[in-house]
Amino acid sequence: NLAKKSRDFSQIENSVNDTKVLISYFSTLVNHELMQTCFLSNLNVKDENLKIKSLQDIQELLPLSEMSITNDIAEIENKLYKGQLIVQIENDTTNFLLININSCQTGLRQFNDSENEFSVVGPKMGFVEDIDTNMNLLRRKINSPKLVIEEVIIGSLSKTRVMIVYLDGITNEQHINTVRGRLADIDIDIVWDTSLLDQVIRDN
Q1: Which residues of 167-201 are buried (b: 16+ CB within 10 A; e: fewer)?
Q2: Which of 24, 34, 75, 173 is the most exposed place for a label (fewest CB within 10 A)?
Q3: What sign has the CA pseudo-torsion 68, 69, 71, 76?
């Protein structure tokens, strides 16, 4: 339920020879190219003789080495927030297949330090990438189910994606609602940069 509060949490229902499979993951943490080529493409096998009765059968379809089956909820939560896929099968409600397909270097710079601002104490991360990569960096730094990411679209022409990020149960709920309300009240054609949003929120 905590994971579902975040915009980047995804669940896919797939069918392997008439057996329903549910895949859960965080889109900002998973390598989508590897997910398609090494995972989903192997699930979509058409073989009348192939019978999927257990998670072990799913394992045998995949050319991946780092997989494990568990019913430990703490381990499942930990691996989910580290970018692994969580696979469930319709006739087994107690066990889960954990699959690591993540490549932490793909799409990321080797260094993400801020070049314009310098701090002696504190993080050096600049968040200078696209929004999905920046959310990936946040998820990796704050490996907690309390981290919630909400998405808002602003700008009638630019359709700019804006993320509201907070720690559930820690951040003051009134502050979160205030930010939601002020962002919803913004009536603008194009969002050029974050300074404009900052000014509008402050003025309101």
Answers
A1: eeeeeeeeeeeebeeebeebeeeebeeeebbeebe
A2: 173
A3: positive
Alpha-carbon gap, residue 55 to 59, rounded angstroms: 6
The pTM assigned to this predicted structure is 0.67
Longest Cα separation, the chain: 66
**Terminal C-alpha separation, the chain:** 32
Q: Identify whether the C-beta of residue 91 lies closer than 8 Å to the C-beta of residue 117.
A: no
- pLDDT at residue number 155: 85
User: In angstroms, rounded to a whole number, what is the distance separating the alpha carbons of residues 11 and 87?
Assistant: 10
Do the beta carbons of residue 190 and residue 157 sit within 8 Å? yes
Q: Which residues contact 103 (CB under 8 A, 6 or more apart)?
A: 31, 34
